[in-house]
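Students often ask what a 'structure token' actually looks like in practice. Rather than answer in the abstract, let us consider Sarcosine oxidase subunit alpha, a protein of 409 residues. Its sequence is given first.
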Amino acid sequence: MIDVIVIGAGPAGLAGAIAANKNGLSVMVLDEFIKPGGRLLGQLHQEPSGEWWNGIEESKRLHEEAINLGIDIRLNVSVFNIFQEDSLWNVYTDACTYQAPFILLATGAAEYPIPIPGWTLPGAMSIGAAQVMTNVHRVQVGKRGIIIGANVLSFAILNELQLAGIHVDRIVLPDKSPLSKDAAIPEEVMKSLLNVAHLAPSPFLRAGSRMMKNVGMRKIGLRLFPKNGVNVNGTSLQLRKAAVEIVGKEQVEGVRVVDIDAQGNKISDSEIEYDADFVCIAGGLYPLAELAAVAGCPFEYIPALGGHVPIHSEAMETPLQGLFVAGNITGIESGKIAMAQGTVAGLSIANKVEKESKTITKKLNQALQQVQTVRQTSSIQFNPEINSGRNKMNNLWAAFDVNNSKNIV
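Now compare that with the structural description of the same chain:
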């Protein structure tokens, strides 16, 4: 019999499967993609220490360890429903139905789309699609591109495209709309980018970024921000320009932009068109938590965690018996944190089975501490308020009496 079904073969899912298996549990991993690794597959960046983080190599290491342990990994399998009956979880897939007393949901995150006129043209894609095509499939997405959207994700992937020899001409903001929200407001974008100042390509930019953390200096800096942008390793970052249309007849040929003020409002008679043969739209990430919702897990909307997230404890347990979560489904963070959370989830499940074994409890406490350590030293932070978001979730969990199935106060 299978003890644990892990849904998602990304960093959290594989790490969770390994931890559970090493502590005596039979584990099956399901994933709809053709390769294990999830978002690790596209990641490639240099840490402040100078060490390179290669997601493909890391996913390969996790996969090989799981295979050597005898973990059953089934790829190209889509899960469309989970349902609990008589203390067993039924997992419905396009292949068959599986059963286990425990489920670990490690479904990761999805990208926010920001609709822009012309976004259906061949050559227009999400920033994540460009990452996968470049780093996973080794396909050149184009010769001269433009990124629409300036956030942590777009800058991380910009670096990966540049390393692959792909020229990104400029980064501009999306047009102001109810869907683009703060992503179209230069002042808000600058504030968010200060949290990755340590990744700036020169000491001058890093020093300038530190100064901009003062609100008054930030407003002055934005007013003085060059209209033609700031050079980021050969790519012009233009916080005072917004894309209003992706242009082209049969494929992407360029982007039409306008000048904007600090609040994202268009400045009249400023329209100009830039040539490009590909466009990447970077809207950000949100937790991919539909299966938790289908299962009946309660949710809370916490912007600092990326949106609606299932209620869960620090030990990755949800209020539903036998249902655990880990990784970006719990809040948008880095692959390293997802792996650390996966280990916590795997140990938490093993501890349930062993009725709080002293040995496993000790490992679990160490794993919980490791999550905090990795979070504090993470070089890429998607949201500066992540700690307040985690604290809010911990308080929500404390308001639950899981044994008596009480609701949130």
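One point worth highlighting: Confidence is low (pLDDT under 50) at residues 198-209. Ask yourself how you might have guessed this from the sequence alone, and why that guess would often be unreliable.
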